[in-house]
Design a protein that fits this description.
126 residues, globular, 52% strand, mainly beta
Length: 126
């Protein structure tokens, strides 16, 4: 199994920045890459960004492209999500997940993730 622990959420004003972290432990070698998803109240969970452990290839949703950056530290088994120019619409619970996809372009599908973190709340105020 893979255990995932997110941290770094909080309350920030619109236009501000936050960096989320996701520390992975356990059978991390079984993971091809990591993804971030988010779920706002009353909405379905949506894909945010993903990164391959090996190649470092990344993929972003259109709603965050140019504002968010996903990165990884293989030595620490940790993935980060740097979020800049935050908007009220970014308010959600953010989840990291361990992916079974082999191509980062497939990372948009939540069905291709087999382990999920507990989530961390991000609230953007105006």
């Amino acid at each position: 199994q893979v255990q995932l622990v997110e941290s770094g959420g909080g309350l920030v004003q619109a236009g501000g920045s936050l960096r989320l972290s996701c520390a992975a432990s356990g059978r991390t070698f079984s993971s091809y890459g990591m993804g971030w998803f988010r779920q706002a109240p009353g909405k379905e969970r949506e894909f945010v960004a993903a990164i391959s452990w090996t190649s470092g290839s990344t993929y972003y949703s259109d709603s965050v492209k140019g504002r968010f950056t996903i990165s990884r530290d293989n030595a620490k088994n940790t993935v980060y999500l740097q979020m800049n120019s935050l908007e009220r619409e970014d308010t959600a619970v953010y989840y990291c997940a361990s992916g079974t996809w082999t191509l980062v372009l497939l990372a948009i599908s939540a069905k291709l993730y087999n382990y999920w973190g507990q989530g961390t709340q991000v609230t953007v105020s105006s």
